[in-house]
Amino acid sequence: MKRGLKGDEEDRNTSMEGPAETGKMMRKLDTEPKDEVSNWGCLPQEILLHFLQYLPLLDRAYASQVCRSWNQAFHMPELWRCFEFELNQPASSYLKATHPDLIKQIIKRHSNHLQYVSFKVDSSTESAEAACDILSQLVNCSLKTLGLISTARPSFMELPKSHFISALTVVFVNSKSLSSLKIDDTPVDDPSLKVLVANNSDTLKLLKMNSCPHVSPAGILCVADQCHGLRELALNYHLLSDELLLALSSEKHVHLEHLRLDVVSENPGQTHFHAIKKSSWDAMVRHSPKFNLVMYFFLYEDEFGPFFRYEVPVTHLYFGRSVSKEVLGRVGLNCPRLVELVVCANGLRPLDEELIRIAERCKQLSAIGLGECEVSCGAFVEFVKMCGGRLSQLSVMEQVLVPDHRYSLDDIHREVSKHLGWGWFPDMMPTW
Q: What is the pTM of this model?
């Protein structure tokens, strides 16, 4: 039960653990006996490509120096279809001088091969500027997936808006087949979204944009109006409006499969959250009865006022901060489509009644995770019994369960396993 979009093709680029160790191993190959070096050089090409695609850029470059065969593999187009640019500010002046030059060489030679690209940048303005410089060079690209990810704030938001937009527009204009776009924490604006739509309206299927203060609901509506193939939309809740939901519910617009909303508060009591009308949600369900509504809440307890006051078609619900018994009670009453629920924290009052209500009303619930909460063992067993075999994921911390006169911690796993139909034990640490 992890936050995040699933199935994105560019995720195949994720660096495997220990790339530095791998680089050291490759640089030491010259000390090995000649026959062993020869064996390394004779690796089948498909295995070598599979191996290299998991390495970050510098380790790929080191690998290309091992032998002629590895150098040839380093320059094969197949290696550069999927790539993640990790832009950090290293302490070594050598790396500062080498990394940008190496990237420019790769772009010059392989920009027309890049299809699935993401930029991960640290909090420095220098890294964000480097990412924009690379974007500006992608004039011969045919990207299908682009992700701009700030691993720590600020980053892209520190750049002059005009600098960022001009670099991004290069990609929007030159890539006529973008299907997936993630632009979180960036100064993208409504006019640049219109450029995106003008050039990629037939191909765009996923748009993810959270914490983009220069985008308005009208900008999102422009995308919804013209990108009829759009299937997944991820937004900050502030960008959601009744008008947008009604537009998405019109027959001439898209049929969303996933709508993901981040409901985030930075400072307690300083953020106002608007309410979406029940009629707008009802229109969305009528138009796309099988769509998934995924909501991630990072609010303080006094900010939940507008939420779950009436029936909401949420299917996946994640509470990243403490949530009150009263709010969870409203979830049980007003979220009949709920499939997955994760509660990371609650107060010290047991959630017995709330869990039972959720089991009674949420007939599709199949996954639940409980962190810093309290539930009596008897109520927990009753909850599992009511949900029955439809629970496929049950992640509950051991300290959540409070022994009572019916069950102790020693025997609860046997009772729960009996009703689930598979072996279950409480967790020692969170798995979400």
A: 0.82
